[in-house]
Amino acid sequence: MESDKAQDGRPARHPYGRDPDAIERPVFAAVIRPHCSLGRTGFTVVMGGCCLVSLVTSIVFLTQGFWPIAGFFGLDMLALWLALSLSLRRGRSFEEVMISQIEILLARVSHRGERSEWRFNPLWSRLHKVEDEEYGLQSLAIVSRGQRVLVARDASPPERETIADGMTRALAEVKKGF
User: How far, CA to CA in Å, does 90 sit from each of 38, 82, 87, 112, 139?
Assistant: First the structure.
């Protein structure tokens, strides 16, 4: 009976010289998060400052008898709070891209925690780029067997270009191995 270990205690080599675990090991992996201009502290500072300015201005108008204006300042603060909290919440979403010898995995997790996954065969897949001379890489998509899925939707053009370069190199490496 053959042993899984060589005589010196190291794991036995594959008969063809290949590592059987390498097939599932990622050649490329990235987590892509949207740019979020404000964190929790920034949100508090901006809202506090705006509310203070709104309160002071409302008091000035109230003392002069223009009482309806105070209500409009309250509506403005409500709209600002709603927009900033929505932006802060959306910052929790992300995308994961993983390319191995046997598959491309693209997973999107929304700000609510909902997960969507797409799996592609790397040998049948290619990247589709839409570039603009002035603004850079506008969109990046994985295309495979008639299916097209956008990658790095929330990334800036330079970030999208970096991701595209890494994915292009990884796909070339995978296809070279076959």
Answer: 11, 12, 5, 9, 20
Entry pTM: 0.69
Mind listing the pLDDT tens digit of every residue in the chain (178 residues)? 444 555 555 555 555 555 666 667 888 999 999 887 788 899 999 999 999 999 999 999 889 988 888 888 889 999 999 999 988 888 889 999 999 988 999 999 998 999 999 999 999 999 999 998 898 999 999 999 989 999 999 888 999 999 999 999 999 999 887 6
Q: Which residues pair with 132 in a beta bridge?
A: 136
Provide the 3-class DSSP secondary structure of residue 135.
coil
Taking the C-alpha atoms of residue 135 and residue 118, their distance in angstroms, rounded to an integer, is 28
CA–CA separation, 7 and 18 (whole Å): 19
Facing residues of 148 across strands? Answer: 143
Residues 171, 99: Cα–Cα separation, whole Å: 8
Instruction: Please report the DSSP string for 155-173 in residue order.
Output: S-HHHHHHHHHHHHHHHHH
| Nearest Cα to Cα of residue 150 among 173, 119, 128, 125 | 128
113 contacts 122 by C-beta, under 8 angstroms: no
